[in-house]
Specification:
alpha+beta; ten-stranded antiparallel β-sheet; three-stranded antiparallel β-sheet; 4 helices
């Protein structure tokens, strides 16, 4: 009798630990909070597979506040076997902010990636929009997060495809909750426009049919142009109320890894200068308006060399740094004909 009691006692004491293990497994589901960025993966059209992925890659401020020039792996990233291959895989990063937790960030600040058409060339960028438009777009982004949370909770059990940061969404089981419902265009499901609430075009970059080299997409911080009272909002990074702030780029590699590189925006090219030329004896004065900080170089050739590329023209050994005023090159030559061009960069 006593032996039976001891056995029962051990079973009873073991039961709470067993229940705790079950509860722990069930509790590890997808979570998100204000200012988080979500990375979404999907295949569309004839390349669609059985699942889509939503990944919480952490606070946007972690990326914005990184030191210029640093590069680091993207957190919580990818689970091998999520797709049959990485070919034809569309992905993007989006996020939003509302509230007062981050001083200086207005409500309905958004973050987007804009795909690069050439890996080494920064994208054309994004335009800041009015508060009402960004509020509508924010609702689509918030739905990606909340529906990922629903799917994760409904699956109920933690595994490699269902964690606090990563959820695999079954298309057949959750057709009204998957990423595509909120990311795809109404008109063309293969394009990611956040249900056409983002008017500037596709936000997704897609890997090629034979994915062997990396693809990149640029991250922008997009503040609304004005607050709730209609007062213009000047972006402290750019000093304007029109241009979105370039943060850096995500790079997705063919081995399934992803990195983020914090980068300064490329300086815009100065406008081509308009030249005026005066001639006195053997000296030519080539005058032009300048842009602050731009570097100007004088190139020259003969009439016969006009068809040749500018790289083959002769270049003056001296340059001029623009200061916003009119500057001049002085060229002395006895050539019967000479054609001039001034390059700016």
């Amino acid at each position: 009798m006593n032996k039976k009691r001891r056995i029962c006692s051990r079973i009873i004491w073991a039961l709470p630990a067993f229940l705790a293990l079950i509860q722990t497994g069930e509790a590890q589901t997808f979570a998100y909070k204000n200012n988080d960025l979500v990375l979404g993966f999907r295949k569309t059209g004839v390349y669609q597979e059985n699942n889509e992925l939503v990944v919480n890659i952490g606070q946007a401020s972690n990326y914005v506040n990184a030191a210029i020039g640093t590069s680091f792996p993207v957190a919580n990233f990818f689970v091998p076997g999520s797709f049959s291959t990485l070919d034809h895989l569309s992905w993007s990063v989006v996020g939003w902010y509302t509230g007062t937790n981050y001083p200086g960030y207005p409500t309905y600040t958004l973050w987007f990636t804009v795909p690069r058409s050439s890996i080494g060339v920064q994208s054309a960028g994004a335009t800041r929009l009015d508060r009402a438009t960004q509020q509508t777009t924010r609702a689509q982004i918030a739905s990606i997060f909340s529906n990922a949370g629903f799917v994760s909770s409904d699956v109920g059990t933690s595994n490699e495809f269902n964690t606090p940061y990563f959820v695999r969404e079954g298309i057949a089981v959750y057709p009204t909750h998957i990423l595509s419902v909120f990311m795809a265009s109404v008109v063309d499901k293969t394009v990611g426009t956040l249900h056409d609430t983002w008017p500037e075009g596709n936000l997704e970059v897609t890997t090629p049919a034979s994915f062997t080299s990396a693809v990149r997409s640029d991250l922008y911080e997009v503040r609304p142009t004005a607050d709730q009272n209609g007062n213009p909002i000047v972006d402290p990074h750019t000093g304007t109320s029109s241009s979105a702030y370039y943060v850096g780029y995500f790079q997705f590699n063919s081995d399934g890894t992803m990195t983020f590189t914090r980068e300064a925006a490329a300086a815009p090219q100065p406008p081509a200068p308009v030249l005026s030329i005066t001639r006195s004896d053997n000296s030519s004065t080539i005058s032009f308006g300048t842009t602050n900080g731009a570097t100007y170089t004088l190139y020259y050739t003969s009439a016969a060399g006009l068809a040749a590329p500018i790289a083959s023209w002769f270049a003056s050994p001296t340059t001029i740094t623009g200061d916003g005023n009119t500057q001049s090159f002085l060229d002395t030559s006895t050539d019967a004909d000479r054609v001039y061009r001034v390059g700016a960069q």
